[in-house]
Every structure is written in C-alpha cells, then in structure tokens.
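ok here's Metal ABC transporter ATP-binding protein, seq below lol
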Amino acid sequence: MTRKTAAPGGPATAEGPPAVALRGATASLGGRPVLRGVDLTVAPGETVALLGANGSGKSTTIRAVLGQVPLTGGELELFGTPLARFRDWQRLGYVPQRSTAAAGVPATVREVVAAGRLARRKFRPLGRADKAAVRHALEQVGMDDRAKDPVDALSGGQHQRVLIARALAAEPELLIMDEPLAGVDVGNQEALAATLREQVDQGTSVLLVLHELGPLAPLIDRAVVLRDGQVERVDNPDRLHDLACHPHGSEPAEAAPAPKIETGSLT
Ligand SMILES: Nc1ncnc2c1ncn2[C@@H]1O[C@H](COP(=O)(O)OP(=O)(O)OP(=O)(O)O)[C@@H](O)[C@H]1O
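and the structure came out like this:
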C-alpha cells in the first residue's frame, strides 16, 4: 500500500511529482472571476476532498485541473508536467458532476464504460486488456449483470455507477470525481466507498468534490475547503469528523476553530 502521512496543509512524504500541482490559479467564467488564487496539491496516492458551499468554485477547480477551464493566472502541473506540454490524459479518469450525457443515445452500459478506454485506444478496436478492464470496472461498481442493458433504462444512481465504472476502466493513476455520491443510495454509497478504497490501496491518487463526506470520510487524507474562489482552509484527518457534520465549514459551538492555513503554504 502506498498511502502516506500528510502534514497539515500539504503532503509530507510523497514520492515522485504530485499528480496535481495547482498554484495561484485564477479563472473567470462569464466575465466574472471564479477562481481567485487557488493552490491545490494532490500527492501520489493521496486522496483530497474539495469542499465548500454551492458556487464556491469546486467544479471549476477540477475542470481547470482537467484543462477544461483555462487559467487566467497561476500554474498547473500534472504529474510534474506543465499543462501546456501534458499529453498523458490516459493517466486520468474523470467522473463529471451528475450528468446525463450518455442518456438519450442508444448505448449499452458496456459501451459507455468502454469509452473509458478511448484515451488509450484512440479509435482502434478494444483489445483483450481493454475488455478485461471494462469487465473489471463493471464488477467493481456491481453493474456487470447490466452490461448489455441500454443506459436509458437505468436509474439515476445506476447511471452514476456506470460513469464511475467508465473512469475506473481507464485504470487511472489520478481519479477525479465531481460529487460521485450524488443520487446514489446509502447502500451503494458504501459499495462505492469500498471500490474507492481498493483503488487508493493500489496507489491511485484521488481528487473529489463532495458535499458530504459520508462513507468516504475514512479515505480522505486532506480536505481543502473553498470559499468564494479561494482556499478558506485545509483540514487534516483530525478535523474530518467535524467536517462530516459541518461539510460547509460552519463550526460546531463546542469545537475549537480550525487552524487557518494560508493558501500559499499548500504546495
Ligand atoms: N459556465 C459558466 N458561466 C458563468 N458562470 C459560471 C459558469 N459555471 C459556473 N459559474 C459560476 O462560477 C461559480 C463557481 O461555480 P462552480 O460550479 O465551480 O461552484 P461549485 O462550488 O462547484 O458549486 P456546486 O456545489 O453548486 O456545484 C458560481 O458562481 C457559478 O455560478
């Protein structure tokens, strides 16, 4: 197992370059500044949760990490390579925020999950290893018995599991998930937490947006709390219990205030 002990505010003992190193990131959407100097590091094997109120910039941050939102300032490196030179997109798996992108098209569950191999295969037919990865991903989310079903026939929670399987099929070194538990019932949340535990134990780095930590709480090494496009604070595992109860940063009356950590100290 490659898990490591993270110091408050940043990874302490990671080997190799961070999977994600975002420094002083600024970005605007619709002419309005949405990210206002975000620092975020995900070390190899580390699991980092992005928390914060609606509109605080969580999704924009991860879309910036994926190169989908251009930075107006700051720097981004993925696996030690500046974004402009980064080409190894097959090293990343992405679960977008609750999406219906695959619905309405005549695709089966297996076809949607197989799309997770696209970055590796380009448009070549799936090989044996690809098929095995797709099968394994379907098993991981408990959807192997639905492989031939049209995605249109699925419930919202099942759809979400298929999107997670699509990301897992890529066998990513960095898994990025935007609210992966949204619409997933409690039993399946537990199952997904177990799946994610397997990935983390294999050394996968994880960056995920969460509204509530729920069953994922024990997996999380660090929680970065955003507020109005800036890092409000960073919480280490000692604080995660409180966060589970107060995911948007409000303090319980009896709790000591979380230490304020300057954004510049994260990397
Ligand atoms: N395409 C867009 N054009 C203009 N403004 C946008 C766009 N997308 C997001 N925003 C704004 O940017 C801000 C940050 O949005 P973002 O989706 O990153 O927040 P979030 O923390 O992920 O919120 P939520 O928890 O509701 O998903 C919000 O004020 C939002 O209204």
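fwiw The longest strand covers residues 32-42. kinda neat tbh
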